[in-house]
Amino acid sequence: MNENVTIVDCVGETCPVPLVETRKAIRKASPGDIIEVIGTHPASKKEIPMAVKELGLELISIEEEGNMWKIRIKMR
Amino acid sequence: MSKATIIVHSGDMDKLYSALIIGNGALAMGMDASLYFTFWGLMRLKKGGLEKGPLSKMHFLGLGKWMVKRKMKQANVRSLEKMITDFRELGGKIFACDMTMEIMGIQKEDLRQDLITEYAAVGTYIKEAKESDVTLFI
Question: Which segments of chain B does DSSP mark as H helices, in order?
């Protein structure tokens, strides 16, 4: 089965943009879809997983390289 | 679902940022959110009025605001216009206080009707606030 992956690019964006853009993508996605958020805002790296938990979605991974991070979310 | 209800009483630019950031944050965390615009806050919902508010402190006849706006631009902070559009897009509700409209002689046509969900009075706010887990007066 092909996974439907949406990339949310928040590199250089600050509060609350990464959180808001992630939420927008979640609202548009369907169950099984993958959302990949990339960004540089340090607080959002902690807060997006918090939102994922609140929304009852699956957090697949959090990767970090330098000041960049990538969070993968799976829709339920 | 849990909910945040915020009264936007101030028309100051920095306070409007607080209200919209918190409102958007609540929506992003999966809550419902309502902003209830009254008094000086409602002035910001007049056509062309959103970015017109002074700073709550150190406005210095506009110099302080200019400096803060410059810093915000450097930090890539979103404009109030974008934030309020995001808020609506994420399902946030905006209430306009109809008593303020009467006192200040504001007609619906003077306001950003594209942003406003409902024209309401205190009863609506209390009902919303009663159902809310977070309530703020800004």
Answer: 13-28, 39-43, 63-74, 80-89, 98-103, 122-130
Chain B CB contacts of A55 below 8 Å: 29-30
Interface test with chain A among B1, B16, B17, B24, by most A beta carbons within 10 Å: B24
- Could you read off the pLDDT of B56-82 as tens digits, one per residue? 999 999 999 999 999 999 999 999 999
Chain A residue numbers with beta carbons less than 8 Å from the beta carbon of B29 are: 19, 50-51, 54-55
Do B90 and A55 lie within an 8 Å CB cutoff? no
**Model ipTM value:** 0.86
- What is the enclosing helix (H) or strand (E) of B33? strand B32-37
- HSE-up of residue A18 (Cα within 13 Å, Cβ side): 28
Instruction: Please give the interface size between A and B, counted as residue pairs whose CB atoms are below 8 Å apart.
Output: 38
Per-residue pLDDT tens digits for B78-111: 999 999 999 999 999 999 999 999 999 999 999 9
Cα distance from A47 to chain B (closest Cα, Å)?
9
pTM of the model: 0.92
Q: Exposed/middle/buried for B62, CB within 10 Å: 0-12, 13-18, 19+? A: exposed
